[in-house]
Amino acid sequence: MTTIILVRHGENDWVKKQRLAGWIPGIHLNENGRLQAQDAAQRLAGLPIQAVYSSPVLRCVETAVTIAQPHQLNVTELPDVGEVRYGKWEGAKIKKLAKKPAWSAVQHFPSRFQFPQGEALREVQFRAVQALEALSARHEKDTIVVVSHADVIKLVLAHYLGVHMDLFQRIVISPASVSILALMPNGVVRVVRLNDTGRLLPPEDKRPGKETAVTPTHPEDNRQLPEPNQSSHHHDVTKEA
Prior knowledge:
Elements: E1 2-8, H1 13-16, H2 31-44, E2 49-54, H3 58-68, E3 75-77, H4 94-97, H5 101-108, H6 121-138, E4 143-148, H7 150-161, E5 178-183, E6 189-196
Parallel strand pairs: 1-4, 2-3, 2-4
Antiparallel strand pairs: 1-5, 5-6
């Protein structure tokens, strides 16, 4: 089984400006975004992570480097989990874009929408899912982290949840949140967590003499990754920053 931990990058100033940052270079995490990345790193520090992958976009790489540090891992850039190619819309203000007739298609019929001189969302979903499937084959028994973008993660989760792409906007992915997939060689899939912002611990080793005592410091600090054959606890999602 491959455990894939999907992490959205932390906040950047373009979020507050309500603009599509896309692949524009030089957009760093802001102060709050760096704190969010550090918090994500702390939450994931106790997990047996074997590899960290990231969208090549700077805000993702910065988040991934922060997460990788406690595990002394390098970050491998993976273009296929990179941001949507927004084409002519890249850098535009969302308030302006929302006045365009095409904006309705993005919100209600994304499976048929292609950004002007950019990607179709169905292409984004395909490339991202293909990338994760390739990682699953490469890391058959590993736990890995993949740092990406809100829409990309939502499209991936919609695929594995069996949700039609036209409904993918119902999924909320907050900055530095964690969503977890368990992909098994026999084709079985489990969506273990979605938009989680609480601390995560590895499953207990139940072999004799291997029990690990956990001393929680917060009511949520004793949450562990459910085993794939167990029912996972659901957490309320929060609004995106």
